[in-house]
Amino acid sequence: MAIARQLRSNQTSGVLLRLLMAIAAFWYSVVLGAFSHATAETVVVIIAFVGLLGLLYSGFYDNVSESTPLWPFPVAAVVCVLGGVIAAPTNFTGWFLFGTGCVILVGRPRAPYLLAAVGWGAGAITLVALQVRAEPTTSVLLWNTAGVLGILLLGITRRQSAIRRQQQAELVERSRQLEQRSLELIKQTEQTRTETARAAALEERNRIARDLHDLLAHALGGLVVQLDAAEAVLDAGGGRDQVGERLRTSRQLAVEGLRDARAAVRELRSDERPDTASVTDAVAAVLNGPVGMRLGLRLDIVGPPRLIPSQTAEAFAAVAREAITNMNKHAPGGRASASLIFSGPQVKLELINALNPDRGHGELADSGDGFGLESMQRRMKDVGGGLRAGAEGGRWVVTADWPGEGVAE
Q1: Predicted pLDDT of residue 167
Q2: CA 36 to chain centroid
Q3: pLDDT tens digit string along 182-229?
Q4: Could you tell me if 294 and 328 are in contact, meaning their C-beta atoms sit under 8 angstroms apart?
Q5: 281 near 314, Cβ under 8 Å?
Q6: Quick one: pLDDT at residue 4?
Q7: Which residue, 146, 278, 350, 384, is most buried by CB atoms nearer than 10 A?
Q8: Residue 367 and residue 292 in contact, taking contact as beta carbons nearer than 8 Å
Q9: Whether this model's pTM surpasses 0.70
Q10: How many helices (H) and strands (E) does the chain have?
Q11: Phi, psi of 185 (to 5 degrees)
């Protein structure tokens, strides 16, 4: 079955051709009387032809891979030497066996160089020596020497051709592997690009969620304050004018909150925004809103104000918005202050309110999910700044600072 599989390979025609040549050579040797010599010479001819048949069988495995069997190489060396031994009495038969053995031995890339040199050298020296001994003339020496050298050249050419075929096959295989690797890299690149786009989309959603949270928490916090105040006026027996004023203020807060939310979404979707902005104006706009006014906040500015990157100014405004919303939730009516400090390249925002455990909490103390502080910290981190929040000596202090990289003069 193994032979049948090999017969279906591309080497089938070459093997059959060598087999036909061996049969023809054997028949021609019989015709020429190669088996009619002395018994020893006849035995040598038979052994050489048996070895030749073995080499023909090895032709089924005639390749240059690591799986090539090694046993044909010493057989080919023996055939070379035996051909040289019987070349003088049999002429054609000896030359045929010597040439076939040497071409197979020298022409195999996996054949050891030493074995090939020894096999060809022993056979060539024996052949030339016995031919000159039978007919000691200069022409016989020259012609036989030229013959064995020609056979050596043929074997070397065959070896080089086999090596080139091996290299071409390796190049084809390497090209196939590189092509496969390229396809895999292209697929991985596409997957990476898809994941990057998905991550960017998720980050954009998180940004929108943070901004909307800040805006809506601020607007809704002020709205609840006004509605609570309206309810307090009703409970105290106040007039309709006072209640109406509170309701109108509540409506204004709702309208402003909706407008700010829409503006935030439009700004996030737009690629056009100014490079710099006034952090003083951004923070003051937040503190001058209804919640800031109820807390009695006034922005104190220390140092000469200046423009900073727009995204950084928005981060400071978001911190101020979230901080005063938390003040309104947890410490309504307490003393509070806000300071914006410009010191060299650094910009710092401090928001402080008094902690009074006897005052209790506002109506919004139990609302929200704790996302506000995390949002403030992330917003400042995104612009290269930092945020600290905590109790300090009976006060709650929120400090946002930015080192001033990329300051616009």
Answers
A1: 87
A2: 75
A3: 999 999 999 989 898 888 878 777 767 777 776 776 677 667 766 777
A4: yes
A5: no
A6: 41
A7: 350
A8: no
A9: no
A10: 12, 7
A11: -65, -40
